[in-house]
Design a protein that fits this description.
Radius of gyration: 18 Å
Number of strands: 0
Strand content: under 5%
Largest sheet: none
Structural class: mainly alpha
Low-confidence stretches: 4-9
Distance between the termini: 66 Å
Length: 169
């Protein structure tokens, strides 16, 4: 039975990688990307739940915008996870850890304005984290991760602009 357990044990070939990044750097960058991936899933779920539950005069605008955003966030999860794998590490298992499973309970009592403000806070948090990890990756010579996070930052900063525009007087 122990042989079966060894076969099922996940393996990486991180020790044999020679891509110009040290094992320690790849591990540190992957850890940062894992945090970003968890945050992206959290924002994806929240955006989707708000999409379903928004009401009021801004319903259509927010409903359409959040649909565009949660679709983009879903695509981003794959891109981020695949970069973690390319660095020789496993994407995190997201079962419960780091995800706020009470988001749907909070959505039921929130106004459209409160939902948008909440999404603004989460996008700002994502931007700060991505900027930190992107800068670190760039300093370590991981141009691919830095480039990927630049594209992700572009998305989040545009999302912030659009969300803020909805709630500005």
């Amino acid at each position: 039975m122990s042989n079966a357990a060894e076969v099922l044990k996940p393996r990486t070939h991180a020790d044999s990688m020679n891509i110009g990044l040290s094992d320690a750097d790849r591990k540190e960058i992957s850890a940062g990307l894992s945090e970003i991936l968890v945050g992206t899933y959290r924002l994806l779920i929240k955006t989707h739940i708000y999409h379903w539950n928004v009401v009021g005069p801004l319903f259509h605008s927010i409903h359409v915008l959040t649909e565009e955003q949660y679709n983009a966030l879903f695509e981003a999860t794959d891109i981020i996870a695949e970069r973690i794998r390319a660095l020789g590490h496993h994407a995190p298992i997201l079962a419960g850890k780091g995800l706020d499973t009470s988001i749907e309970l909070k959505a039921s009592g929130r106004s459209a304005l409160e939902m948008v403000r909440d999404l603004v806070e989460d996008h700002e948090e994502a931007v700060r984290k991505m900027r930190d990890v992107g800068t670190m990756a760039d300093e370590k010579g991981d141009l691919v991760t830095a480039d990927m996070l630049t594209a992700r930052l572009t998305f989040h900063e545009k999302a912030l602009w659009m969300l803020r525009a909805l709630i500005t007087d």
